[in-house]
Amino acid sequence: MRPVLSNAGRPATIEITAIDQDGATVPTAIAGENPLTIYLDNRELVTLMTLGQSPEALVIGYLRNQRLVGRIDDILAVQVDWETGACAVRTACPIEDIAARTAHRTVTTGCGQGTVFGDLMADIDKLRLPAAARLDEATLYGMLDVVRKHETIYKAAGAVHGCALFCGTELLYFVEDVGRHNAVDAIAGQMWLDGVAGDDKIFYTTGRLTSEMVIKAAQMGIPFLVSRSGLTQMGYDIARRAGITMIGRSQGRRYLLFTGAERFQRAAASAS
Amino acid sequence: MRPVLSNAGRPATIEITAIDQDGATVPTAIAGENPLTIYLDNRELVTLMTLGQSPEALVIGYLRNQRLVGRIDDILAVQVDWETGACAVRTACPIEDIAARTAHRTVTTGCGQGTVFGDLMADIDKLRLPAAARLDEATLYGMLDVVRKHETIYKAAGAVHGCALFCGTELLYFVEDVGRHNAVDAIAGQMWLDGVAGDDKIFYTTGRLTSEMVIKAAQMGIPFLVSRSGLTQMGYDIARRAGITMIGRSQGRRYLLFTGAERFQRAAASAS
A230 and B157 in contact by Cβ < 8 A? Predict the structure, then answer.
């Protein structure tokens, strides 16, 4: 049963005035950034700084990616109140040892709270991503074209990261947030809400392929991770261990295939 | 007295091979990313993911910006051991209530651990940045030229943020890291180590002007904050409250002056 949700999305940008190099006063759109404190079964858990576009999905995805909640069915209600900057989450099985569960903290490059990292690194080798899944070059290029048309907030205000979930060239979700980790979590939450599995999906991010980004994609069971940006050493190491197909520096008709080449089909290859 | 420091800087990039859109195997430099767990007086505090260029300054700056240590003199030793991924910090006055001090967590957009945020927001209005400090356009442009020449890792591998501290057009420090928050903290730590005050300095970042970035600059007593990127709503609000002079979207001969215009002198103005 779907949890009871508020519908408290916020306007993405506000307009301020700045002075440019010519001394002209120019109206400038900037990205919203709002503190949202999660109360899990009446216990304060963490405060996220978010654009606030889809706060309910963000909170659910945060709980999922932090592995504080095991299944969407355990979440009864997610109520966001911007007046107080609070999000009240009610679960079917209140977690007794929140403190212990969240004690070991890691500040990941991508800003994730720590539990996800320490725990998942231990499990990373157990992860099995679908070996038969395939992505061809034409689909990759098609995705990139779709993304280009969707970066509304980035175009207007900059200062945001975008993440998208694709099934082939079909865009299922596109989320932008001031924190890249939030955009990922919001998609993870929406996947849970809609009962969408990751095994035949492609995850796209404008951000860098850091350890946290790769871990979260693998945790969502998504075999393909595509980024416009570069990658870090640990992102690379984890991608290889998790057997994820990772493509970076992808824009227009250019890309670099970093790992999991066996799932990727170049145009030439597929034509032969 | 300067703390006893290890000198455990790591190579910034490693080289991997990728396959490009033409099917060619291309050597690709990627940014290093290493977990470093801080043990503060033998108690595990947090694990940072870092490029590892200047880990000792990073750890000192982290403790400073998280307000866990009040003065550099309280730090006796900082010893980094990459074999174990551990950094042992010894202080003159071990903090008894670490748990309590770090209990309230905020995942800031810029990935800082939380204590800094909650605490400092309460103090932000008490901060007084030097009103007489001035920055003119020629100096800004000179800074931007210097920065352009220094982004070695970014040019080689991407996936890093750069931060710099300037006195006029003189570059005092330039730090790149996979985490923007790390680059800021490393500069804060180096300032402490060298006894450098912030009041006549200019802080430059390639990253976005988020709440955390503005708070940290203000906390370091630096009146000028310059970024190549845009800003977020909370970064803007805090900059106004702290009275910091904030310039964004600055590259080449272009910029947007967002706040604190009274400290900035345009070429035209200074020529008149």
Answer: yes
A59 in contact with chain B, both atoms CB, cutoff 8 A = no
Q: Which domain does B31 fall in, by range?
A: 4-121
Q: Can you give the CATH number for the domain in which B170 is found?
A: 3.40.140.10
ipTM of the prediction: 0.79
Q: Is A33 on the interface with B (CB under 8 A)?
A: yes
Q: Confirm whether A130 is domain-assigned.
A: no
Same domain, B62 and B89: yes
Q: Are residues A49 and A113 in the same domain?
A: yes
Are B109 and A158 within 8 A, CB to CB? Answer: no
> Could you say which of B121, B146, B173 is where a domain stops?
B121
Is A250 found in the same domain as A146?
yes
Report the number of distinct structural domains present in chain A: 2
Q: What is the CATH number of the domain that holds A62?
A: 3.10.20.10
Amino acid at B231: L
Chain B interface includes A262 (CB < 8 A): no
Chain B interface, best mutation among A25, A39, A111, A236, by max B CB count within 10 A: A111
Geometric angle at alpha carbon A81, from A77 and A87, rounded to 5°:
50
The number of angstroms, rounded, from the C-alpha of A119 to the middle of its chain's C-alpha atoms is 18
Q: Identify whether B253 is part of a domain.
A: yes
- Residue that finishes a domain, picked among B121, B151, B176: B121
Residue of A nearest to B158 (CA): A230
pLDDT per position in chain B (272 positions), as tens?
Answer: 789 999 999 888 889 999 999 999 999 988 888 889 999 999 888 888 899 999 999 999 999 988 889 899 999 999 999 999 999 999 998 876 666 666 554 554 433 334 445 566 677 777 889 999 999 999 999 999 999 888 777 777 776 888 999 999 999 999 988 877 899 999 999 999 999 999 999 999 998 898 888 989 998 999 999 999 888 888 999 999 999 999 999 988 999 999 999 999 988 654 44
| B181 lies in some domain | yes
Out of B23, B33, B107, name the one closest to residue A210 (CB): B33
β-partners of residue A204 are A164, A226
The DSSP annotation for B125-156 comes to GG----SS--EEHHHHHHHHHHHHHH-HHHHH
In a domain, B90, yes or no: yes
